[in-house]
Every structure is written in structure tokens, then in C-alpha cells.
Amino acid sequence: MLKVLNIVGARPNFMKIAPIVREMQRRENDFLPLIVHTGQHYDAAMSNSFFTDLGIPAPDYHLEVGSHSHAVQTARIMTAFEPVILQEKPDWVIVVGDVNSTIACALVCSKLGVKVAHVEAGLRSNDRTMPEEINRLLTDQISDLLLTPSTDGDENLKKENIPERKIKFVGNVMIDSVFYNLEKSKESKIRDDLNLTENEYAVTTLHRPSNVDEKEVFTRLLDALIPVSDKIPIIFPVHPRTRKNIENFGFAEQVENSNIKLIEPLGYLDFMRLYSGARIVLTDSGGLQEETTALGIPCLTLRENTERPITITHGTNILVGTNTEKIKQSAFEILENDSKTDKKIPPLWDGRAAERICDALING
Ligand code: UD1
Questions:
Q1: What architecture is the 183-336 domain classified under in CATH?
Q2: If we measure between CA atoms, which residue out of 132, 167, 135 comes closest to residue 151?
Q3: Domain ranges of the chain
Q4: Quick one: pLDDT at residue 364?
Q5: Is 207 considered catalytic here?
Q6: What pTM, to 2 d.p., does this model score?
Q7: Distance CA 166, CA 7 (A)
Q8: Which position among 37, 41, 207, 239 bears the catalytic label?
Q9: Which of 49, 68, 314, 352 gives 72 a disulfide partner, CB atoms 3.0 to 4.6 angstroms apart?
Q10: pLDDT digits (tens, 9 = 90+) for 84-106
């Protein structure tokens, strides 16, 4: 019987941990799963609703860390997490993704000699100005088991001299959640509430500091999104960071007078219902690049790089950057062509990654 602590902290972690915990519960003779929530995200819309939507059991430990500078947030997670490890003495700790909770908990474990498995290992944007890239690089260096979503991850890790025996290609666990919940998401009333018809609206999300904390960049993006919204209405669920900057930069009126509709951040099922009916998605999210690929929805990524190149080579993603004209041109091209693409889903994005993750823990 393996005692496993599963770490969640921020919004993109919940849909990765949910299938893993469910699989461990199914294999009750082999696994005792516990959940630790660091509290990096704490708003109902950024955290609680995901537990409900995804059926994740209530956390066994809640560290209630909240928002701070990177140093303070990371340090507080470490300080609060260390006693949990000392008390529980788990066989494995699972960290997912690339948020501050990921590196903070992995670092505590490595110093205490507790085995860490990193789910979504090996992704690289090769842009070290992104906080997530630092979190990825460091977490992979100190983890005992590197579970990759795509084989570009394996290649990146080998280049960083990580021993091959630690690397295991398991596929994309985020897609387990997509397939598991797609049917259930049809019960959501979000399209009715917003008066939307399938394929006749676009969805946007933006929250990367490099996009929304920089007035000049955010201006370039809005200058593209507004004309796009004249062709197709854009629904824009707004991250708290982005909401603040729309106010601070004085963009509120301009947006209000456009066909961009700002709404509060949505829960997992409502958001799935929303993007799964979109004609096009324009985003800087990592997860959404993958979700749109899994469902064959055209996606424009408003960033200069992506740590998920497989969504370009084997999916529906186009990296357009932050140039106003380029975004407009790419969006207009998609709007003029057929809606769904016929590209294939990447290997092992099959809804069974959690099974392979559990097998890897048993074999590791
Ligand atoms: C974090 C992750 C990012 C992930 C994103 C998803 C890191 C370094 N970044 O960025 O990789 O894509 O989550 O959302 O870990 N806030 C609230 N309520 C909340 C959480 C945050 O109002 O529940 C506000 C706070 O004012 C906070 C700001 O949003 O200062 C940013 O939150 P933070 O967790 O620091 O980073 P994110 O931008 O959310």
C-alpha cells in the first residue's frame, strides 16, 4: 500500500490531480491518497468550485497560504508543508504542472528525502522570464520520477542530463479530465445564460504577467481583440490579475463599448461548456492550448513561445504572438474557413494517463 500526498495549489492543478486521485481510490488496495491544498488560489471561483465540479475529495490539509510575492508565497508554502511531510511520512508526493506550489512542495520533499513524482514534466518554453519556466526546470531537476505528457518532454529532460530511468512518458492527464467530464458539461446552462449559439462566438482568456501586467502589450492585444469581436462576439472570463489591470490601465470603458463581454472566472464544467462550443479560442493559457487540441477547436496562442509545441504539430494551436496585425489576420483567416480541423490528437492523450501514472508509482 502506497501512501501518496497529492498537491494542489492553483487553478490549473485541480483538473490534473482529480483523475489521479480517482484512479487511486479505485485501486484502494494499492493506494492511500491524501490531498494537500496549499491555498495559493483561494477565491471560490478559482478554487472551491473546481473541487465540486471535478468531484475531488475535500483536502486532508489546507495550508491557506494565499497571494504574496513569489518569494513570500513559495517560502510560506514550504514552511507550512514541511510539518505535513514529517507527520505523514508518505511513500510518494505528487506535484503537477508549473506553479509556485509545485516547486515549493517538491523542494521540501527533496530535502527530506521523500520521493517526488512530477506530473507534466519536461515542458519547456525556453523563456526564463516566465516564473513557470523556472518552476519547471527546478522541479524536474529534483524530482525522482518525471512523468511526461508528450515525447518532446522526454527529449528536453534528456538534454538536461536527467537519467532516462527517471523519465516515463504517460500522456496528458489533463485530457483525462476533458474526456471524463465532456458529457457532464452539457448540463451547464452557461450558453443559454449568455445567449450563445454553438460556433457563433469566440472565447478569450488572458492572465500571463508578460501580457496583462505590461500596459503596452495589453494594449496591442486589445487592439486586435476589439476588431475580431466586431466579426464574432468574444466571451472573456477574467482572471483576478487581469481584472485589476483592466481597471488600473483605464481599459474598462473601451472594453465595455466593444463586443467583448467580460464575465467572472468560470468553474470547470461551465468553462468546458463555453470553450467546447466556440468557433475560435484566443488565449495565453497553457491548459487551454491542450483542451482545444483535444476537442479540435482552433486556438490562437497570444504569446511568443509555448511549452506545449505538440499542440501545434499535432493539434489545432497556432502561436501568433502579441502583434496586433498578426493576431487579427490569423483570426480572420480562421473565421473565413471551416470551423473544425481534422488534425489528430497527440499520442497518449487518450483519457488513461492517470492509470499509467499509478502504474509508474508502483513500479518506481
Ligand atoms: C498562477 C500560476 C500560473 C497559472 C495561474 C492560473 C505561478 C507562478 N503562477 O498565476 O502558472 O497559470 O495561476 O490562474 O504559480 N488572486 C485572487 N484570487 C485567487 C488567486 C489569486 O484574487 O484565488 C489574485 C491575487 O491578487 C494575486 C493575483 O491574483 O496577487 C495572482 O495570483 P497568483 O497565484 O500569484 O498568480 P496567478 O497569476 O494566478
A1: 3-Layer(aba) Sandwich (3.40)
A2: 167
A3: 2-171+349-363, 183-336
A4: 82
A5: yes
A6: 0.97
A7: 20
A8: 207
A9: 68
A10: 999 999 999 999 999 999 999 99
